Amino acid sequence: MTDKPPVVALTHLGKTYKGKKKTIVTALKDLSFSVAQGEIVGLLGPNGAGKTTAIKLMMGFAVPDAGEVRFHGNIQKFAEPRPNTGYLPESFKPNPHLTVKEYILFHCGLSGISKSRAAQEADTLLGHVGMDIFAHRKISDLSKGMGQRVGLAQAFVGNPDLLILDEPTSGLDPVGRSEMIDFLIAQKQAGKTIFFCSHILSEVERVCDRIGILVKGELRLLDTRDVLLEQTDSKDLDEVFKKEVLCAQS
Ligand SMILES: Nc1ncnc2c1ncn2[C@@H]1O[C@H](COP(=O)(O)OP(=O)(O)OP(=O)(O)O)[C@@H](O)[C@H]1O
Ligand SMILES: [Mg+2]
Questions:
Q1: pLDDT tens-place string over residues 213-249
Q2: What pLDDT sits at residue 2?
Q3: Cα(27) to centroid(ligand 1), Å
Q4: Domain for residue 206, yes or no?
Q5: Helix (H, G, I), strand (E, B) or coil at 234
Q6: What is the pTM of this model?
Q7: pLDDT in tens, 5-54
Q8: Ligand 1 environment, Cβ below 6 A
Q9: Which domain range does residue 234 map to?
Q10: Is residue 211, in this structure, part of any structural domain at all?
Q11: What phi and psi values does residue 199 have, to the nearest 5 degrees?
Q12: CATH number at residue 32
């Protein structure tokens, strides 16, 4: 019997961008890690560390300079739709002319959900993210946090097995953040695999099986919280994070 390949595996990924005045910005260097079935992996890193770039490469929205991306053992190319995957981009901008429910129904249609099931699916998802009471409000009239909740609902349309979320709690108030983390935990309990990046150490700590720390495009650590504390002789994740950022700058 062979072991199942990981849900996602990144191998030796590198990415540079063209900066101003012909400079080269190195966004990722030799990034390798995998996410196993049913795992929640969170990636922490300061602004500009390369988190969104890693997610874009994972999703096929950018071409790596080096390395490869595999889903379930299969190489994934640039712009190739990822199988059974829900995605929340960093800058989520839904169509402002639709109402919240119309927007989710639209995505239900894209996911191949029949019209008869779509209304129920939309109501359920909007309930999960606390947006059922605003179902008929226009997207253009939502606050930032409300928009983010709609983005999360959109990522869960079609009940995907894998969720890739770029700062899922960005813009949410503390209660909303906590609710969202509870929702992600419930998703894990239902067997989902989740990869997300965040700036909020406490939520990563609460929800993740393993935590990665990315600084200046390099994955410095990736392990369970307890192993990270032990490896770096730290009392909490905040200390681990600060040590790694300082070390990368020195
Ligand atoms: N399209 C682009 N063109 C040029 N440089 C880019 C581009 N996208 C990202 N970068 C640069 O690549 C590096 C990594 O950016 P990235 O957006 O991946 O970081 P991040 O960790 O997601 O940051 P944040 O926490 O602020 O979202 C940064 O130096 C950024 O300026
Ligand atoms: Mg980002």
A1: 999 999 999 999 999 999 999 999 999 999 999 998 8
A2: 64
A3: 6
A4: yes
A5: coil
A6: 0.96
A7: 999 999 999 999 999 988 999 999 999 999 999 999 999 999 999 999 99
A8: 17, 19, 25, 27, 45, 47-53, 90
A9: 1-84+198-250
A10: yes
A11: -105, -5
A12: 3.40.50.300
Neighbours of ion ligand 2 (CB under 5 A): 51-52, 90
Q: What is the DSSP string of 132-189?
A: GGGTTSBGGG--HHHHHHHHHHHHTTT--SEEEEESTTTT--HHHHHHHHHHHHHHHH
As a whole number of angstroms, the distance between CA 82 and CA 5 comes to: 16
Residue 74 lies in a domain: yes
Classify the C-alpha dihedral 76-82-87-89 as positive or negative.
positive
Domain count of the chain? 1
Q: What is the mean pLDDT of residues 92-114?
A: 95
Tokens of 179: 């609710």
Kindly state whether residue 249 falls inside one of the protein's structural domains.
yes
% of the chain beyond a pLDDT of 90: 91
Residue type, 89: P
